[in-house]
Amino acid sequence: MTKILMVCLGNICRSPLAEGILKSKLPIPNFMIDSAGTANYHTGDSPDRRSIAVAKKYGLDISHLRGRQFSVRDFDAFDIIYVMDESNYNDVVALARNNADSAKVKFILNEVYPNQNYNVPDPYYGGNDGFENVYKMLDEACSIIADTLN
Ligand code: 4NP
Fold first, then answer.
1. CA distance linking residue 29 with residue 31, whole number of Å
2. pLDDT one-digit tens code per residue, 12-44
3. Structure confidence at residue 128 as a pLDDT band (50, 70, 90)
4. Which atom of ligand 1 is nearest to the CA of 41?
5. How confident is the model at residue 23, as a pLDDT?
């Protein structure tokens, strides 16, 4: 069982999309996929309606997901922790207890553009275009992740 955690800031825009997209590409019994936010602003909240809408447009239902905050226990519970941007990376690595914890943390877009540490832009304050753009970036990255792990 490979356990993968997707992390962004609020856990309502980018990481629930990444969770839903990767789940759709991997056989459920062999993988555990979850998402979390570095902040606690949206604990218990549904994904942003714009993330729900863009997922629905591509045939995925993420409306049942609920926000939660990343915790140090996630280093024990997951094998790979994908972050969306540099600020998520710094926030998660700051909680690492040792090198094994920090080695689990990876920029998700490095799957597409190795070693570049590119950010998935935060779409929260933009329009619907931002969510479409984020969906396409995450879909490309998750296809590569799924091909590598399957
Ligand atoms: P996310 O987007 O990190 O992709 O979930 C955000 C959601 C909410 C906020 C910031 C970013 N916020 O400030 O409430």
1. 6
2. 999 999 999 999 999 778 999 999 999 999 999
3. confident
4. 14
5. 97
Neighbouring C-alpha atoms within 13 Å toward the C-beta of 148 = 10
> Active-site residue 142, yes or no?
no
Measured CA to CA in angstroms, residue 144 lies from 113, 114, 134 at distances of 11, 12, 16
Sign, CA dihedral 77-83-89-91, equals: negative
Q: Reply yes or no on whether 14 is catalytic.
A: yes
11 CB less than 6 Å from ligand 1? yes
Among 9, 2, 5, 4, residue whose Cα is nearest residue 119: 9
Q: What is the mean pLDDT of the chain?
A: 97
> Which residues lie closer than 8 Å to 142 by C-beta, 6 or more apart?
18, 21, 22, 25
Task: Say how many Å lie between the CA of residue 38 and the centre of ligand 1.
Answer: 10
In sequence order, the 6+-apart residues with CB closer than 8 A to the CB of 116 are 107, 109, 110
The pLDDT of residue 127: 83
